[in-house]
Amino acid sequence: VSSSAGQSPSGVRDSFRRKSSVRGPWLTAFLGSLLLPLVVLVGFTGFMSHAAYNPNLGMNEIVPRDGDLDLLLFDWPTGPTWLYALNQSLHTIVGIIVVPLILAKLWSVFPKLFSWPPVRSLAQALERLSLLLLVGGAGFMWATGLLNMQLYYPWSFNFVVAHYYGAWVFLGALTVHVLTKLPVIRAAYAERGVLKPLMDDVADTVPEPHERHGLGPKEPAPTTISRRGLLGLVGASSAGLFLVTAGQSIGGPLRSIALLAPRGRGAAGGEQGFPVNKTAAVAEITPAQVGPDYRLTLNGATSTRLTRDELTQLPQHTETLVIACVEGWTTKQTWTGVRLMDLARMAGMNDDQLLQVISLQEAGAFRQTTLSRDQVMNPKSLLALQVNGEDISMDHGFPARIIVPAQPGVHNTKWVTELKLVNA
Amino acid sequence: VISLFKRVYGTSPLHLLGQLVAFAIAAYAFTQVTKVGSTDTKSLLIWFIGGALLHDLVFLPIYVVLDFIARHGIRDHHPQRRVRAINYIRFPVAISGLLLVTAFPLIIGRSESNYVRLTGEQPPDWFAHWLLATAVVFGVSALAYAVRLRRSDPSAAPAAARADV
Predict the structure, then answer these.
(1) In chain A, which residues have their Cβ closer than 8 Å to the Cβ of B105?
(2) How much is the pTM?
(3) Non-local CB neighbours of A158 within 8 Å, separated by 6+ positions
(4) Which residue of chain A has the CA closest to B36?
(5) Which of A157, A363, B83, B92 has the smallest CB count inside 10 Å?
(6) Using CA atoms, how far apart are residues B59 and A176, in angstroms rounded to an integer?
(7) Which residues does chain B have within 8 Å of residue A106's beta carbon, measured at their own beta carbons?
(8) A356 — alpha (psi -120 to 50), left (phi > 0) or beta?
């Protein structure tokens, strides 16, 4: 394999000094060109998810509203019903499969870390500092995102707030980085062609020159992999990550091979055959609260209290809707219950009012949700009493939960005790 | 004036403006996130700086050492066949390693307590799942290597000498 078979200390040192023969401006430019659209997609779907929580309504905000950039918010649509599932599947799946590409990109520019002298000009010093924002931002976003999906939170800050503002830091630094490096990228493609270096196999691989950018190897190690081989390594790693994780979002046969997804193969089927995000025990719902004394309060111009039996006497509708968690997993079930619009009308909803949905749960960010008028008036939006033909179980929100098309899973409030009209 | 600026700063004013935009956005984000009561600034900075160093100080030394071992430890038994073993080792090691890096909370049991608390059920054995996935990728790679070796056997079928990966 290697021509330097020496195992002497000098041979070892020599082996570590020699750098990969495939590193260089072209490789970095090409990896960056693949990475950019994927990262933009992850960023875009991230901001879409933020908007999907309708943080400008009622008490929905998690990121404090005065610091939120309202320009990017809009009334999140209620259709197509799989919109939020698609958004979060893209955010999490692309976020995962892009990891090998990010690592390859960082590997390709590693020699720059030790460029000497470390600072040649004020411009370079500033650029290195902004690269700290870029690389630190990437590390922060991917580490917190991946860990949050796996229900592991070894930090002392609010994930949602930090992940939201981290995105600004990362995407701001990324934009400046791409614009700064455009001439280098153009030059690399002009010099070597955009795809031509992919044609070379191991024997034909000629190292890119070390001069000018310092990315190419000063003393190339013997070539053991071609540039397309390295891209194949990245692609195979991404494919591997896809196969063992994407099933929790996409479902079907992929779910059975989702070996390393929190809601993939072998994960708790949950009561009634689909995953429970949070049990009634965690939410501290007591049997007494959901017993014969349970009443749903409709609070509007007047106040009405309905028993569960009375709710079942109202016109019932059935809809098959997907619930998608912000963490990327999805589940599609058939729900039966009363249309939210019927209940809102019973309470006397005006054109300029919103509906606040309140849970029996006494603590937690998602013990209440405020729905937009469009969400309430969508004929598919239900106060669900049954799922797949049987009463909803305790852990899925008995006596009643809401299900609204295309909204984030946790906004489908469980154990609903009150529907309250509030002014917009 | 521009040339004086270039001499002092190192490049065009546009470059300076761009960098300042990145710093201003970061500073804005930092003031907003630290305003939130639940934010522990020290924890935030540790994760941010740690994120910047993770690749270069943790992952890269691992690649370098693994690659050194691979380059010096793997001898091809059939050098005349022009099929090198090293990439048939690199691929499954990289895939299995990436699965471990991205899903370590599941694999080493860091997710378990929250999983049990929130869902009320026992999680699957994700460590076993990782071992299974690792076995599959090494198996696929071994199969691919065997096929390539056979195809390039000069004493067997008259397959044309094929270029390497």
Answers:
(1) 147, 150-152
(2) 0.94
(3) A62, B36, B38, B39
(4) A64
(5) A363
(6) 26
(7) 55-56, 59-60
(8) beta
Name, in order, each residue with C-beta under 8 angstroms of A141's C-beta and a sequence gap of 6 or more: A163, A166, A167, A170, B51
CA-wise closest residue to A260 among B140, B111, B24, B41: B111
Mean pLDDT of chain B: 90
- Which of A235, A241, A273, A271 has the alpha carbon at shortest distance from A258? A241
Q: Which residues contact A251 (CB under 8 A, 6 or more apart)?
A: A330, A331, A332
- CA B81 to chain A, closest CA, distance in angstroms equals 13
Q: Residue A10 pLDDT more than 80?
A: no
**pLDDT surpassing 50 at residue A191:** yes
Q: CB-hemisphere CA count at 13 Å for B101?
A: 23
Please compute, for residue A350, the number of CA atoms within 13 A of its CA located in the half-sphere on the CB side: 8
Contact B91, B145 (CB under 8 A): no
Bridge pairing between strands A416-423 and A296-299: parallel
Place A8 in a pLDDT band, splitting at 50, 70 and 90: low
Percent residues over pLDDT 70 in chain A: 96
- Calculate helix-pair angle for A83-97, A99-108, nearest 10 degrees: 40
pLDDT tens sequence across A256-313: 999 999 999 987 667 888 999 999 999 999 999 999 999 999 999 889 999 999 999 9
- The candidate with the shortest Cα–Cα distance to A134, out of A182, A101, A171, is A171
Residue in chain B lying closest to A105 (CA):
B55
And the tokens for A117? 């002298």
Give CA–CA dist A26/A185, Å, rounded: 7
Please tell me the number of Cα atoms within 13 Å of B87 on its side-chain side.
Answer: 22
Token pair listed for A364: 């937690």
In DSSP notation, A166-203 reads: HHHHHHHHHHHHHHHHHHHHHHHHHHH-SSGGGT--GG
> Chain A contacts of B72, Cβ < 8 Å?
2, 5, 7, 15
Chosen from B28, B38, B67, B95 to mutate, greatest number of chain A CBs within 10 A: B95
CA distance B32 to chain A (A): 6
Asked whether A389 and A407 are in contact (CB, 8 A), the reply is no
Residue in B21, B23, B118 closest to A282 by CB: B118
